[in-house]
Design brief:
151 residues, two-stranded parallel sheet, two-stranded antiparallel ribbon, binds ligand LIKH6CAM, NADAR family protein, YbiA-like_sf
Length: 151
Amino acid sequence: MSSKPESTIYFYAQTDAYSEFSNFAPYGVAFDDLWWRTVEHYFQAMKFHDDDYRERIRRCGKPKDAKALGMTRRIPLRADWEDVKDEIMLNAVRRKFQTHAIPRELLISTGNAHIAENAPMDAYWGIGPDGAGLNQLGKILMQVRMELQND
Ligand SMILES: Nc1nc(O)c(N)c(N[C@@H]2O[C@H](COP(=O)(O)O)[C@@H](O)[C@H]2O)n1
């Protein structure tokens, strides 16, 4: 049985504490022999089946550019995106923490604290404008933390 969290850790901007937990943090991931500069690059590219467009996202410089490219609907979003996006995010976040010791040790050091993405505009991955969002990214981070703690 897990104990009640003692506190909440908020993260979001690269200038704030715990920025290592953001998908925008400079910790790359490898999938299928390809290197992605950040989790954000990989996640945004997976929205599309178009290989050229995926590669354009993979090669773009900054995670905010990857996110902007991922927002386009000029290239069709894959039809199953809503069904697969949580698992894609989990796999990418898990890979990031398996790959990089600095964010991994920081995540493990949070013990059983609640983790929340303090994203003001995002009530799905973050807690949104009123703090009541789904916080799916925070939940994934807590799941990955539990896996690492049990390793
Ligand atoms: N705009 C922005 N800036 C940041 O610094 C962020 N961490 C985020 N949040 C991330 O956006 C991704 C979700 O993108 P979609 O809305 O599903 O296209 C996800 O990685 C959030 O963590 N956004």
